[in-house]
Amino acid sequence: MYSKTIRLHSQTGKTLLDYITLKMRLTGVKPMITMKDIIRDGHPTLRKVAKEVPLPPSKEDIETGKLLMEYVQNSQNEEIAARYGLRPGVGLAAPQINVSKRIIAVHFEDYSGKTYSHILFNPKIISHSVEKAYLVSGEGCLSVDEDIPGYVPRYARITVEAYDEEGKKLRLRLKEYAAIVFQHEIDHLNGILFYDHIDKENPFKPIDNAIPVGQ
Ligand SMILES: [Zn+2]
């Protein structure tokens, strides 16, 4: 059957980028990521420390970043998300599509309406507050199918250093919701999942010196 969209099958041996290159050469149609390409909890890549990307980023690494961003943006478009069965997300990290490299994409608005839209290479938290913050509703992850309730303690404010696709160094100062999203994504580069931070005995134990975010 004719399909405008080519689904990728990243778990079948070749790398995702091999597929993209091949499909584009054969069909001229740019592929997109769907939930099939997102690996789930239990897959070993999610627990690996991802590799730094050589700078400036290669064409291939830039393409990976763009695919991640495209998924996040598509997933927030109701019509596209419904058509392709995309779970909505605000960020995605390369290890989640089985590419163990330090690349993330985020696209969201914070509670004050400020937009954050970044493809970042080798992002690193270079400083953080002592004060913590947590999402009152808990966190979710495209790689974790079940809902795991509980407070996830994060730093309330962080400074992230990262590189853009031209290899230019960026410094982002982030607080509360934005800081939480970036910490979730950067954790993926270190093999950490959000529920690792939840208190197993008492998931809703109040967190000392922490700002509740959202409702
Ligand atoms: Zn996640």
From TrEMBL:
Record: active site: E185
Cofactor binding summary note: Binds 1 Fe(2+) ion.
Cofactors demanded by this protein: Fe(2+)
EC annotation from Swiss-Prot or TrEMBL: 3.5.1.88
Catalytic reaction annotation: N-terminal N-formyl-L-methionyl-[peptide] + H2O = N-terminal L-methionyl-[peptide] + formate
Binding of Fe cation, residues: C141, H184, H188
GO biological process: translation
Entry-linked InterPro entries: Peptide_deformylase, Peptide_deformylase_sf
Keywords annotated in UniProt: Hydrolase, Iron, Metal-binding, Protein biosynthesis
SUPFAM superfamilies, alphabetized: Peptide deformylase (SSF56420)
CDD domains hit by this protein: Pep_deformylase
GO molecular function annotation: metal ion binding; peptide deformylase activity
Domain of life: Bacteria
PANTHER family: PEPTIDE DEFORMYLASE (PTHR10458), PEPTIDE DEFORMYLASE 2 (PTHR10458:SF8)
UniProt family annotation: Belongs to the polypeptide deformylase family.
Function: Removes the formyl group from the N-terminal Met of newly synthesized proteins. Requires at least a dipeptide for an efficient rate of reaction. N-terminal L-methionine is a prerequisite for activity but the enzyme has broad specificity at other positions.
Protein's name according to its UniProt entry: Peptide deformylase
Organism from which the protein derives: Caldibacillus debilis GB1
Gene assigned in the entry: def
